[in-house]
Structure formats: structure tokens, C-alpha cells
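testing teh design pipeline on a random one, pls ignore if ur not involved
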């Protein structure tokens, strides 16, 4: 850990980002400081190219004592840490489910009231595609990974109602530098827009609990951004600038393709490692 004197500035808000070594963590490391945030970064993996104004913590989110120290003296937490795709249930349970519980518990015991939780569209992945998918569709996870995100949303609701926390759950779509396939012309969340969405979750006045979809202002988007805009999210990017290239390479999605039919796309057909259908 860096000495506090190197990073702490009086009256500047501080945010803890768990899972900061990942792709989205990297986007937030670039995108949040211009909005005035000091960063405390936590990951079990090495965080690349740490800056002089970043405080780095290394460890496992299942370590309660580490988390108690990590959340001390921060104003908010962005919880990204976890397995980011399908895996064996035991690993999903240990890291995504128990890890999320430990983060919420640390905040309840010793930390800030405001949390931005990285959920996923895979919490409702078996929901059929509609013209505009709303956030109040029934929970229909498409994988153990999606199940863990549904747990996180339910845990967030509990911690808001029982302990007075303030939590925004972001059902993040496809957050990459650029779309990687035709489906992502609808589900893409740009590096700039994830920072804008998280900033909205961190600063929305009067927030108690919110679940919102996380995509950019995509011309082909079919997830309702109304609740996210109500938090103050103002997306500025649109995957349509990549449409010509993507469609020339791959063509339009067939209506029978799971990437077209379901909110979770091909995750609805995905099995954990070593598991066969039956």
C-alpha cells in the first residue's frame, strides 16, 4: 500500500474500485479522475502501470479484514471484482456470490453508504428480446454467472432496505473499446460511457436503490435507458459508427440466433466447463 500522504487530498472524494485490474477497471481509472475522484484500487491481480495519485491494494475480496481496511475513509465503492463469465458453480459461489456479500458487509460495518454494483444483462439473460427491454422484467439468469449477478442485485436490495445503503446496480452490456460482433451494435457500452454511467451512480442525489441497463446511446439498442438517464446518465457514444464494418464482415443477425432472441445472447446456450447437456 502506498503511504496515504501520496494520494490523499483534503476535500476530494475518494472511491474504492474492486477488480480494478480488469477491462472496466482500466476504463474507470481513466474516466473517473477528470470528474474529481481519487482512486483506491483493489485486485488480487497486479494492477498495471499504477499512477502516483492511485492507492493500490492487493488481495482477495473474500478477505473480510482486508475489505474493512479497504473501505475505510472512502466516500463510495464501485464493485467490479469477480469472475466475468461462466464457470463451475463452486468458483462462482466462492468469488462472485460470497465476494459480493463480503463487499456489502464491509461497507455496512465500516464504510460508505454509496455502492455502484456491476451487475449484468445475464441476470435476466433468458428474457426474450422485445422492442424495448425494461429493467422490471422477471429475473431469468442464463448461467451460474448470471445467477451470481441476480444474487448481487437481491443482496443490494436487502442492504438498502435493512441497513440504509444507497446502491445502483448496473446491468452492463458489452463494455469494450469497440464492438466485437453484430450483437454488440445493440449492447455496446463505450469506455467513456461506462465512466459516465458510474459517475451518475456515484453522485445521483436521493438514490436509495436502482437497477439500470448499461449501454451507450446505440441506434440499434433495445434496452430501456430511461432509468439510467433518471440517475443522470448522459451517454455520448453510439455503436452505429462501427455498423458498416461489422455488417460487411458478418451480415445481420438471423431472428433465430440466440444473440438476437435473448437478452443474454449466446450465454443461454453456454455450459460450465466440463458439463455436457442433458
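output:
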Amino acid at each position: 500500500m502506498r503511504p496515504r500522504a501520496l494520494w490523499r487530498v483534503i476535500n476530494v472524494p475518494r472511491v474504492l474500485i474492486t477488480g480494478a485490474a480488469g477491462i472496466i477497471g482500466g476504463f474507470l481509472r481513466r474516466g473517473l479522475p477528470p470528474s474529481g475522484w481519487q482512486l483506491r484500487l483493489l485486485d488480487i491481480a497486479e494492477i498495471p502501470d499504477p499512477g502516483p495519485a492511485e492507492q493500490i491494494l492487493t488481495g482477495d475480496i473474500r478477505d473480510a479484514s482486508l475489505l474493512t481496511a479497504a473501505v475505510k475513509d472512502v466516500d463510495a465503492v464501485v464493485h467490479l471484482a469477480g469472475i466475468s463469465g461462466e464457470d463451475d458453480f463452486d468458483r462462482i459461489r466462492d468469488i462472485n456470490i460470497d465476494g459480493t456479500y463480503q463487499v456489502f458487509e464491509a461497507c455496512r460495518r465500516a464504510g460508505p453508504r454509496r455502492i455502484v454494483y456491476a451487475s449484468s444483462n445475464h441476470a435476466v439473460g433468458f428474457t426474450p428480446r422485445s422492442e424495448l427491454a425494461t429493467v422490471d422484467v422477471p429475473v431469468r439468469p442464463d448461467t451460474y454467472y448470471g445467477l451470481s449477478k441476480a444474487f448481487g442485485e437481491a443482496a443490494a436490495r436487502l442492504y438498502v432496505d435493512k441497513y440504509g445503503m444507497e446502491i445502483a446496480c448496473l446491468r452492463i452490456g458489452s463494455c469494450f473499446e469497440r464492438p466485437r460482433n453484430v450483437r454488440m451494435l445493440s449492447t455496446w457500452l463505450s469506455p467513456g460511457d461506462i465512466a459516465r454511467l458510474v459517475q451518475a451512480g456515484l453522485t445521483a442525489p436521493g438514490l436509495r436503490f436502482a437497477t439500470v441497463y448499461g449501454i451507450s446511446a446505440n441506434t440499434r439498442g433495445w434496452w430501456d435507458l430511461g432509468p439510467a438517464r433518471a440517475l443522470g446518465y448522459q451517454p455520448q457514444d453510439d455503436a452505429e459508427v462501427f455498423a458498416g464494418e461489422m455488417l460487411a464482415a458478418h451480415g445481420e443477425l438471423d431472428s433465430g440466433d440466440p444473440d438476437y432472441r435473448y437478452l443474454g445472447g449466446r450465454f443461454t446456450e453456454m455450459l460450465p466447463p466440463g458439463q455436457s447437456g442433458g
